[in-house]
Amino acid sequence: TGGKDRRSGLILTIPLCLEQTSMDELSVTLDYLLSIPSEKCKARGFTVIVDGRKSQWNVVKTVVLMLQNVVPAEVSLVCVVKPDEFWDKKVTHFCFWKEKDRLGFEVILVSANKLTRYIEPCQLTEDFGGTLTYDHMDWLNKRLVFEKFTKESTSLLDELALINNGSDKGTQQERERSIDLNFLPSVDPETVLQTGHELLSELQQRRFNGSDGGVSWSPMDDELLAQPQVMKLLDSLREQYTRYQEVCRQRSKRTQLEEIQQKVMQVVNWLEGPGSEQLRTQWGIGDSIRASQALQQKHEEIESQHSEWFAVYVELNQQIAALLNAGDEEDLVELKALQQQLSDVCYRQASQLEFRQNLLQAALEFHSVAQDLSQQLDGLLGMLCVDVAPADGASIQQTLKLLEEKLKSVDLGLQGLREKGQSLLDQISNQASWAYGKDVTIENKENVDHIQGVMEDMQLRKQRCEDMVDVRRLKMLQMVQLFKCEEDAAQAVEWLSELLDALLKTHIRLGDDAQETKVLLEKHRKFVDVAQSTYDYGRQLLQATVVLCQSLRCTSRSSGDTLPRLNRVWKQFTVTSEERVHRLETAVAFHSTAEKILQECPEQPEAFNDMDQFDEIEAVGKSLLDRLTVPVVYPDGSEQYFGSPSDMASAAEHIREKMKLVSLKKQQLRQPEATTPES
């Protein structure tokens, strides 16, 4: 209980009960309890209190005698607590004090209330009228925890020492073999350490805290012994566990390094083996868009396989970087070498994949441009093979413009093909840099020949189309000229018709006098010159049309009726012009004679001798008036009048007035002649 006698010896209490007590179990229990105190405590001896108040005398006697065999040297006093007035007669037959020499210790029968004569009340529990605080279940639980901790920690210390000592001795392989055999302890060191700390905390708390009654509690001697044992075990455990953690860390680092090394070699071996072999077998660029796309799809599959290994590379690189940041100098050189080797291989393989992808993309673009150019050439050739049958010059111009645009588009397409082809050839020429010693001259020659063959073929097709375009351009320009000539000839006919119409409708005046009529006659001759030029121009255009039709080997659709129309209008114009000239000349003669007669004086005697001129002018005037009423008759039998009837009536009226003046003049001249005979 932690109580002590007056000699500072520990008090051992043996409570007996009414039930049968096993001496063997009691002996084992006593051996265990006596093993707890230190040797120093044992040297001060024990005072044993045998509580027989609830037991029989023979049991008590057996226990006392057993103490002789179990702890004879350590027991200095045995106090048998007897029941009140129960054993008085029986004990007379056996006196313990007489057996002191044989037993080796003194035995006293005492009542519970008189036990304080031998032991201080503060060292006795409440069961014996003392004040010592004691909780047997608390002591038992704590003792079990202590025993468990001691057993586990001792076993754990042995295991950790074996592991740690094994890692410090022998070769690297021996250390690893030793660590492998005993690498994991049978119990968790963290759990054992936590249990020890909790136990030590509880022991220290009980040592320094007072009891509920406020009286300072004297720690049990076994607890005083337990605390240093726990502290010592904890210190040893921490030391060994720290070493064990370092061993584990070194082992983990070595294992991690070996795993990294193994994975690095797996990545390197695959990239330099199957990965590189896949790229070696892929050298073609395809001969069409579909073939290039198929090669691209195959390359994407290769890239997908490489991506898995590149992902491993990224993970390994991160692990190596983490180990390098840890700063273990002994592994820095090896880690850097692994990192450099891994990076070199991965970057080289990634560069090859990128180069191959760029090459296939360039090939696809080349074939795409070649296909577009081929389609453009086909469209241009189809356009050239169709015979030109335009409706007019504008449609020919539009067709010619479309032809030029297509040819220009072909030129740009061929230029783009050359650029793409040259770029692809440049990339192919650099392919040997990652061929790993493989001779790719034959494969590259096939690719180069294919590219150059495509460009040469496109150049020849384009040249043939250009030649055909030149022929078609010349033909279309001639057709444009033909249509232009036909249009201009038709325009000449229109102009000539307009001149004829103007001649008939506006050229109707005959003049008021001879001078004005002469001016009109001069203007008419100039007007006829313009019409003649128009007619000649139309004839020339129609002649050019005939020549162009012969050159184009085609029949003009308009020149066939343009020439008859031109000749018909010209003949009508000629007849009308001649009639106009005849009328103007007649008018000039009429006005000249009339003006001459009207200007002569009556005193002039010769006027009377020339009366025939009056008859002549009268005849001319009547003839002129008759012509004004007669239509122009064309060769085809059609008729056409000059001006409107009112215009002709006005002109005729003017002539009649002048004829009246001439007639009046004639009468004036005749009167003097009549009066002369009379006179």
Automatic annotation (TrEMBL):
Superkingdom: Eukaryota
Keyword Protease: no
PROSITE patterns the UniProt entry points to: CRAL_TRIO
Keywords annotated in UniProt: Repeat
Alphabetized Pfam families for the sequence: CRAL_TRIO_2 (PF13716), Spectrin_SESTD1 (PF24915)
InterPro entries cross-referenced by the UniProt entry: CRAL-TRIO_dom, Spectrin_SESTD1
GO MF annotation: an example: phosphatidylinositol-3-phosphate binding
SUPFAM superfamilies reported in the protein's UniProt record: Spectrin repeat
CRAL-TRIO domain ranges (all copies): 1-136
Family indicated by similarity: Belongs to the SOLO family.
Protein name (Swiss-Prot/TrEMBL): SESD1 protein
Organism: Alaudala cheleensis (Asian short-toed lark)
Gene encoding the protein: Sestd1
